[in-house]
Amino acid sequence: MVDQHGPADVLSHSQLLDQGERAAVALAKLGVRPGDQVAVLLPMSLESVVVTLACIRLEARRLTLPLGDHLGFIRHRLRTSGARVVITAGSCAVDGTVRDIKSGLDRALWACPEVHSVLVVQQVPRPVPWVPGRDVWWHEALAAGPVPGGPYAGAMSSSTDQPLDQSADRAQGRPQAGSAAPVPPAALIFDDPLDRRSADDSDQGWGERPAADGARGDLLRFLEEKPPHHL
């Protein structure tokens, strides 16, 4: 059993993007690649949003698992999805009752040997069952990145200098940093869109504006538009 402090309850927009970048680095180090499934067993929380941002950056697929007594279903979803990484809460409060989420997940994982890593977010400060070599604290995994100048550095922050993965850009024909059509740096814009148009706004709705990098790039622009009224 291991004790650990609780999660953060307030993040600014820039902090949220930074956490998403750090989570993308952590998942990439665990072997998550584009198209992979990342299983998520979390209550509604900031960490759940961060996981979604990380999956977008990696072009991975988020597989949301239900809270509660659904061990058979969780085991089935993990085995059929091929997910190798699970992100879960140690314990969490649901309708005023504290539930031991991690202990239930451990029982489901007995029949899922393909799962090699479990990232644990401590929602409630109480002991958590632990499997050495497989389980990793969420806050420790995020503390390791991003690495300045690394392949994910600045990819979700307000000072983007290069694409998230230049090899993927080459494969899909997108402009690369240093090429004839470099990716322009992003910038934080705090003007009031009700007063005048924001520099990163347009008359087209999200999903309607043309994007050379497809729906993923369109979704990233949605997340990074300022002010973040949608968040």
Automatic annotation (TrEMBL):
Name this polypeptide is given: AMP-dependent synthetase/ligase domain-containing protein
UniProt KW keywords: Acetylation
Alphabetical list of SUPFAM superfamilies matching this protein: Acetyl-CoA synthetase-like
Pfam families: AMP-binding
Polar residues composition bias: residue spans: 156-165
AMP-dependent synthetase/ligase domain boundaries: 10-125
Ranges where the record places region Disordered: 152-231
Biased composition regions of type Basic and acidic residues, renumbered to the chain: 215-231
Domain of life: Bacteria
Organism: Streptomyces cheonanensis
